Amino acid sequence: MRIGFAGTGLMGKPMIEKLLEKNYSVNVFNRTKSKAISLENLGAKICNSFDEMANNSDVIIFMVTDFNAVFGLLQDCQCNLSGKHILQMSTISPIENLELKNYANKKNAKFIEAPVLGSIPQILCKELITFIGAEQKISREIEKIFQCFSKEIIFIGQVGKASALKLAINQLIASELSVFSMSLKYILKNDIDVNIFMNVLRESALYAPTFDKKLNNFLTNNFSNPNFPLKHVLKDVRIIIDEFTNKGINTEILQAEKTLLEKGIADGFEDEDYSALYKSFDNSETK
User: Fold this and answer.
1) What is the pTM (predicted TM-score) of this model?
2) 147: CATH
3) Residue 204, SS3?
4) Rounded distance, CA 158 to CA 126, Å?
């Protein structure tokens, strides 16, 4: 089975590496070709165009920035997509995935949404959780592709269901980080031993592992080498606000988080780890 992979960013590159480790034939396309060249030494074929990649692939995987990036590539594609599987793994809205599905079906292609929970460390350890949205359960051959970087593959339902679950979880990621940042900032302002605070928290029902995962970032003020940059969290939060609003869910809390994220972007933290949101609380303090 020949795999085409569009997108060699933070997630795409290690996913491609895992596919190559399993001896898949992988054709790679990235708009900035130089960012994909290093994969050539590992056995990937670097394509000059999306059409070249798609024409020589049975399965096309998207791990790109947003809906416009996916749809733009598909719309501009001149090759025959009939019979090909399109695996859309980027975080976009259910409505957007349904639009892509309808477009793919018009081209007689099979569409599967497959957002994932996890980031670079989970890819490297094959511990991603992959959510599947499809008209019917995926074939064994497609499932084997996801197994290259996933510990669990969960069939959620029709297209749109998996991306809805992903957005619900990403809302928790943004919200948990925000409330923890606020409490930690307050602890430090009151000169309370952080170890005492964390020990109490770890023994309570309030604890989430991400608190310890990001604690050192906060205490050292080091947010470099991101697994998930701040700008991507802002993109997701904007999608989540639109989706929740459409479902009649109050988003006032999310609106406040969006404001903090926008502060972080304005202050130049967009490419730092999303835990850099912590720094935005300094600008919201009462002087």
Assistant:
1) 0.92
2) 3.40.50.720
3) coil
4) 25
